Automatic annotation (TrEMBL), chain A:
Record's keyword terms, sorted: Cell membrane, Membrane, Transmembrane, Transmembrane helix, Transport
Topology of the protein relative to the lipid bilayer: Multi-pass membrane protein
CC terms in the record's Gene Ontology section: plasma membrane
Domain of life: Bacteria
Recorded coiled-coil stretches: none
Family: Belongs to the binding-protein-dependent transport system permease family. CysTW subfamily.
Domain ABC transmembrane type-1, first and last residues per copy: 91-299
Subcellular localization, as worded in the UniProt entry: Cell membrane
Listed name of the protein: Putative spermidine/putrescine transport system permease protein
One BP annotation, GO: transmembrane transport
Protein species of origin: Rhodovulum kholense
TM stretches of this protein: 41-64, 97-117, 123-139, 180-199, 236-258, 278-303
TrEMBL record, chain B:
Annotated TM spans: 73-94, 103-127, 147-164, 185-206, 237-261
Chief site of localization: membrane
Subcellular location: Cell membrane
One annotated GO biological process: transmembrane transport
Residue ranges constituting the ABC transmembrane type-1 domain according to the UniProt record: 69-256
Any GO CC annotation of this UniProt entry: plasma membrane
Name of the featured protein: Putative spermidine/putrescine transport system permease protein
Organism of derivation: Rhodovulum kholense
Topology of the protein relative to the lipid bilayer: Multi-pass membrane protein
UniProt similarity note: Belongs to the binding-protein-dependent transport system permease family. CysTW subfamily.
PROSITE patterns attached to this UniProt entry: ABC_TM1
Length: 309, 279
């Protein structure tokens, strides 16, 4: 009780000094002010990001019975994980999804952003069309996945259209519950993450640079490859980071769109969780986190995010 | 206006196809949710009815979707308010370039790129090992903040990168205190962007699945409820639910956008008269 009231008093005095500093306007110590203002964010991230990661690392060394988990320090989980051929297959599959989705979202996202930034001439239209591209981002991913079923199913729109056009004689089986539908759903869900940052960097390109390129005799294609694409690199990188991490960490899209027939690392983790094998799930999660952070580290070498917003 | 190049029409066609790709499936399930009582998950439509929407109001058909909707709504509001307040404070903090801000920034980036299931698993483990019950309003709330706060902060970066510091200097020169400057100058100027942060906070929370999966406890949020339905419901009732919640999302987005639009218009009308007055 005393500890609590002491804490409260400490917090109160901190708050009072913050308010006093704000009121007098004489903030001698910008570091103190900065930390005070940033403390709620730091606190949330400490409790719900750093501690969970620490917990996962700890539990990854624990042991498990069929019903419970117990503290230990053993490398069994990692040993099992790193010697199982399934792990490598699943990681390879995860990379395959990430690379394919990245390639499609980049191509589509860049083209869409290019159209919006350089071909739509009035700002009002630019904003309106841009919003149209981003609205699905604010709706449910699960619903957007479900909505592919009537399209891709055995008797779905795609099959019946192709059959009535005479392109195929019997329904294509690989449209739904296959790698195809997984990639399609990823592209559908995540292209926005490419469009937004690339559009953002494109809008910041000084238009006189493009004039200059034309005046110097560059063709449209040369301007694109020698001027616009290099200047869009930061946006491309940010979009890539989003897409790659979202795909690599995903478990629900792969499960739903492959009809539980394909696996990625996220599904490996969620399956272990379903079986209450938390230590094994934690070990897989640690390896996944390291992999993702390595990929990000690689991509971040090319761009300084804070400057590019 | 000069003639449009041919590439414009090619790209415009591409863009139209993209929009079709983006919205087509959603429109399809919107149509299919009006299936007749005999209809299935795909075309053809067997009659047109509100049968499946009626089903949503019967407990035994779909479980507790209205309870989960209520929880998702409240949680969305909680996350929204927290995200706005904490992001603004964070944005103001980062302008001061305080010692250690780089570390915090890397944490924010980590929060953004970390696979959601790790947050879910980690928070779930912490709660279960310390004997606390996971609940959507505690563990679920915190887990969702790790997803919305980075977005909020990045938006604040974008806002403050474009912020004209001379407004603040003017306020200071006229004797405003630091708090007065923030309250009467900075906040009103960035208000429309705060609506944007709020939109992110609410909708990302309302739709969040992975981070709530192991942290919501025994009472599901709406996305969890819908996910549960995908495994055992094989009737268009799931389309009806999808249509209804998408419609709700669209209404929310519409309200937010309309608010920004009105604010900007009012600002344009009542804004500065500099350069327009009599000399």
């Amino acid at each position: 009780m005393t500890a609590l009231s002491k804490n409260r008093r400490l917090f109160g005095s901190l708050l009072a000094s913050l308010l006093a500093q704000l009121a007098t306007g004489r903030t001698k110590n910008r570091h103190l002010m900065g930390w005070l203002l940033a403390s709620p964010m730091a606190l949330v991230l400490m409790v719900f990001l750093v501690l969970p990661i620490v917990m996962i690392v700890i539990v990854s060394f624990w042991g498990a019975t069929e019903f419970s988990i117990y503290p230990a320090f053993q490398w069994d989980n990692y040993q099992f994980l790193l010697t199982s051929p399934v792990t490598y297959k699943v990681f390879l599959n995860t990379f395959k999804y990430a690379v394919l989705t990245w390639a499609f979202t980049l191509t589509i996202g860049f083209t869409v952003a290019y159209f919006l930034a350089f071909h739509v001439r009035s700002l009002t239209w630019q904003i309106a069309l841009f919003l149209l591209c981003t609205i699905p981002f604010w709706t449910s991913n699960i619903i957007r996945m479900i909505s592919w079923i009537p399209f891709l199913g055995r008797n779905g729109i795609a099959n019946s259209t192709l059959m009535s056009m005479g392109v195929i004689d019997e329904p294509l089986e690989w449209l739904l519950y296959s790698d195809f539908s997984v990639i399609l759903a990823f592209v559908h869900l995540y292209t926005l993450f490419m469009v937004v940052p690339i559009f953002n960097t494109m809008m910041r390109i000084d238009r006189s640079l493009i004039e200059a390129a034309y005046d110097s005799g560059a063709t449209g294609w040369q301007t694109l490859t020698n001027v616009i694409i290099p200047l869009c690199k930061p946006g491309i990188m940010i979009g890539s980071i989003f897409v790659v991490t979202l795909v690599m960490g995903d478990f629900i899209t792969v499960r739903f769109m492959s009809g539980s027939q394909s696996a990625n690392v996220g599904r490996l983790i969620s399956n272990d969780i379903g079986l209450l094998q938390y230590p094994s799930a934690a070990a897989t999660a640690v390896i996944l986190l390291i992999t993702v952070l390595m990929v990000i580290g690689l991509l971040l070498r090319f761009v300084d995010i804070r400057k590019e917003l | 206006m000069d003639r449009r190049p041919r590439s414009f029409y090619v790209l415009a066609a591409f863009f139209t196809l993209f929009l079709l790709f983006l919205y087509g499936p959603t429109f399809t399930i919107a149509i299919l949710s009006f299936q007749g009582p005999e209809g299935g998950l795909t075309f053809p439509m067997r009659g047109v009815s509100l049968h499946w929407f009626r089903d949503l109001f019967e407990q035994q058909a779909v479980g507790d979707i209205w309870g989960s909707f209520g929880r998702s709504f409240v949680l969305g509001l909680m996350v929204m308010v927290t995200t706005v307040v904490v992001s603004v404070m964070g944005g103001l903090a980062f302008r001061k370039r305080f010692a250690g801000s780089a570390v915090l920034f890397y944490l924010v980036v980590t929060s953004l790129v970390i696979p959601s299931i790790l947050v879910s698993l980690g928070v779930g483990l912490i709660f279960s090992q310390s004997g606390l019950d996971v609940h959507w309003a505690t563990s679920g709330f915190g887990s969702q903040l790790t997803w919305t706060l980075p977005f909020g902060l990045l938006i604040m970066f974008a806002v403050f990168n474009r912020f004209d510091k001379s407004y603040e200097e003017a306020a200071r020169d006229q004797g405003a205190s630091a708090w007065q400057t923030i309250r009467h100058v900075v906040l009103p100027i960035i208000a429309p962007s705060l609506i944007g942060v709020a939109l992110f906070g609410f909708t990302l929370s309302y739709d969040e699945f992975a981070r709530t999966l192991l942290t919501a406890g025994s009472h599901n949020t709406l996305p969890l409820e819908i996910y549960g339905m995908t495994t055992n419901v094989t009737t268009p009732v799931i389309f009806a639910l999808g249509t209804l919640t998408t419609a709700f999302s669209l209404v929310v987005i519409g309200v937010f956008l309309a608010t920004v639009w009105t604010m900007n218009r009012r600002r344009a009308r009542q804004g500065s008269d500099a350069g327009q007055g009599m000399v």
